[in-house]
Structures
1.
Amino acid sequence: MTAPDPRDSDPRDREALTGVAAGRRRRRERRGEQPMVPKAEFTSYYGRPVIKPPVWKPLDIAGYLFLGGLAGASSALAAGAGLTGRPTLARNAQVAAVGAIGLSVVALVHDLGRPARFVNMLRVAKPSSPMSVGSWLLSVYGPLAGGAAVSTVTGRLPRLGLLAGLGAAVTGPAVAGYTAVLFADTAVPAWHDGHRELPFLFVGSAAVAAGGLGLATAPLRETWPARFLACAGAVTELTASRLMNRRLGMVAEPYRTGRGGRLMRIAETLTVAGIATAVLGHRSRALSALAGTALLTASAATRFGVFEAGMDSARDPKYTSLPQRERLRAGEGSRAVTG
Amino acid sequence: MTDPAAVSGYEDPPPRMGFFTDTSVCIGCKACEVACKEWNAVPEDGLLLTGMSYDNTGSLNASTWRHVAFIEQRKPLALQDPGVMHPDVDVLEMAPLGSSTPPEQALMTPTAPGQEGDLRWLMASDVCKHCTHAACLDVCPTGSLFRTEFGTVVVQEDICNGCGYCIPACPYGVIDQRKGDGRAWKCTLCYDRIGDGLEPACAKACPTDSIQYGPLDELRERAAGRVERLHEAGVTDARLYGHDPADGVGGAGAFFLLLDDPEVYGLPPDPIVTTRDLPSMWRHAAAAAAGLLGAAVLACLTGRRR
Ligand code: SF4
Ligand code: SF4
């Protein structure tokens, strides 16, 4: 990390010579609820972060969360639609799945510090590393989704295609869900502390995206499953998000403030509007397409929102230190400090 | 079995080695930072003045594997007098006497103690903790990070693909990605020296023995004795950080004697290895994924079919 240029800093920050300086002052006043953790005396080392924020690029990684979710949930939807006589929905979902997963692999490789070494991801299989689990999962799911789509589009090897489609339908939801573990298994407060709700928020968002894509591209007589999936996903996602905000107390602040908060609000508004349009406009092709587009955008906004909220919570030392200090005060901490 | 090397599969490993950094004797000379850079050929990482203190490095990062923190406090250090306050001295009155005044006639000499002050400097050389339960190592997907026979945690730079996962996983913000290189770097506890029986470069260079290297068991004993002696001497602020195997990372291989709360030094007050909650995370994710599959099935089985 490069040191900040002193000329950029607020002169009051430079007065903070006593070491017990209060945390970094926020330029913008926070809106919304106050921290639920009782106000504890907060100390930091000149307002610097305690943990290192991820070095991941937002477009690559938040984009991957969105695309991976879209692909995984689409595969599940495609298999069901294919087996229940909705061929266009099935085909569109399959093609979307393979496109999304292909793009997301490109994003993942692009994000590596050493892209040429991407194969090292499959050098070992480590259950303690969600990224290792995810790499193996992708290497199973990707070819299955690809095989299913190729078979459907070309009409070749229908049996094998069906099997591949079923395989993708089972592994797809795992692809959509594991990314929550990927984020939660870090020291980033807003992600780690939300480890119970994030998986539901993520698969909910994935269902919203896959449902949205189905709504936007399938003929009206086949859109029922897409609409159903989008509704179920929206309810799951919004509920998980509420629960998480409640349980996390002050650590959930970044989900309500700053860039993360803005994106989460956009996502919520678009989800509700998209669902309402999808339900009320179920007889209209144009309205269904509009609803589908809104839902796809909403899902992307959710992923970028979660990403940004995590970054904010990592940058501000109070989200790391305060809950830990509270834990110690309440006698629930471990024995980090002795003597 | 608490020896991380044995847990990692080493048969009959050597004793676990570590650092005890006693910040009560640190003078902030940064010899450790320099020695580390020299020995490990760590590149320069920006020549900036932070403007906040004598700390111009800021934090541990990919190219700073020892970092000396400076904290200035309005608080007396027990039984010690920094002796820097001379508010009653009139330099203009002293000036006519000239610089060759014999000491007994001088109003003041360079060693004349000042008034008892209320200022203290805390200096602490931070480093990778070489955790017993190391999050960075747990989450590394390539196996680039590994446990050595000495119980330390080291990155293999020929394997790291720069995925960056270890960086937000570390509860202390130690490991970091080097810009332009793309890979993750951190302290190796001088793996190439300790294998030859040499002490790490920083410990070797430290003029006050603030950085002590040795078998962890011995260091823990020595540290406990040191805290006791400091308490007896009235330095009641003295405490150990990362010393206890019952902490959230199973005890640090590099632990510290601090004179204030960990936060003051930029350290987390109660760090916990993130992978402790991994089983719970997988359970929740499995339930969520099953729910998604169920919802998709239900979606297709309901509704009017063609
Ligand atoms: S302090 Fe961080 S980088 Fe060092 S071993 Fe522990 S988790 Fe890894
Ligand atoms: S950046 Fe390198 S050392 Fe860190 S987790 Fe990825 S592969 Fe492992």
2.
Amino acid sequence: MAGFSAPAVWRGRTHRYRLVAGKCTSCGKLHYPPSYSCPYCGSRSMVEAELPRVGRLMSYSVVYSVPFDSKSRAPVILGLVDLGVARVISEITDASPEDVSVGMQVEAVFRRIAEDGGTGLIVYGIKFRPVKGA
Amino acid sequence: MPQQRPETATGIHGWGVYIPRFRIKMEDIAREWGWSDSQWKALAMIEKAIAGPDEDSTTMGLEAAANAMKRAGVDPGDVGAVFFGTESKPYAVKPSATIIAEALGVTPVTMASDLEFACRAASEGLRASLGLVASGMVKYAIIIGSDTAQANPGDVLEFTASSGAAAYVVGPSPGSAAVFEGSYSYVTDTPDFWRREGTPYPRHGEGFTGEPAYFAHIIGAARGLMNTLGLKPSDFKYAVFHQPNGRFPLKVGEMLGFKPEQLKAGIVTPLIGNTYNASALIGLARILDNAAPGDRILVAPFGSGAGSDAYSIIVTDAVEEKRNKAPKVDELVSKKIMINYSTYAKFRHMIRVVRE
Ligand SMILES: [Zn+2]
């Protein structure tokens, strides 16, 4: 394992922990995760904006062949979540493939996203789960 | 005689709970290890809650704290202390309190630390917070109790050791949902339950966990509190204690002179298990979800090693508008996904996968 870069984990913590998007001051559009330039108009004038925490699942993919550290939660469901003002690609947690469907309501939760083996850093951040319990 | 309450009144501005959705039935654990059903029936247990594979005490603690902040409605910048009580730290060295403080937007001008005293660490954080708030050193403090409790597979402890979190936002009494009337701490060196550094599962002194540990310390704290305040059991609407199983809290309540109807509202362990640092605090949250203004509540968490703190709190009018701002305990208890023993063992890292 190459090992996670502590500075990279640290730089991303605000947007991962609090679902903070980049908001373009030129065209007004939001994007997540935030980047240095607007993916819509190319402007480099950005401010931060917290996204809503409840949205709808637009599409998803079920990944059966997963990295070693994700084996305990295979198959992993990757979803495209529409939050109205922005779209977010996120893991869908607390759910099996039969529990998810396009259009279902999902909400943001704080989870372990990845870990660097048994001795390295644990990366925390937002995932989404079905609003309805099973 | 030390002062058992600060000069300035303090209160609970927000309470919040998180219970993971996964549950296992007692029958499944008993069948796996050849226990007689009488074993878990004697503990008055039905099901226990299990954290998912991407959850730990930090993630659950944050969800509970975020729910408490929804009810508190305070500016994160006004929070001056974040205390995290657990005996299941994701990192042996690196605080969870800073991760939670960062995610809540409380950083950087705040105290933040992880506390350890078996199941009582969060309660110590609560007691310390009353002093910090009353002195004016901090405006609001967040106290979190969260555990993914470990049990050696096949140990009787496995019936009860579960996962869950509770959090409280404490501040000056004006605007709070419940006011602290007094508190009393009672600790001794008692070796009833321990886990050595670097070992995965705790050990316990079997019969020694009851009389000299759980019962002696809770009774010491609760009687001390009532004597100091000049109160008797009938002065309280509710009493809630640490809940290592479904039976002990009823028994200690009875020994103190409380009636079953004062005790039942706060007992949640039969349906979710013993959430360790969150145990009594989830029970208190369930009471606050339903209490009426004016109700007086006695709450006494316990931690092995051993110690207990007893608090007397009086519910205010503000409880009514706060209770609907975050999920209630009963809602969290009822949202569940049943899993079997092998899934539970995998989720709680009891199956070791070797990296090839
Ligand atoms: Zn733009």
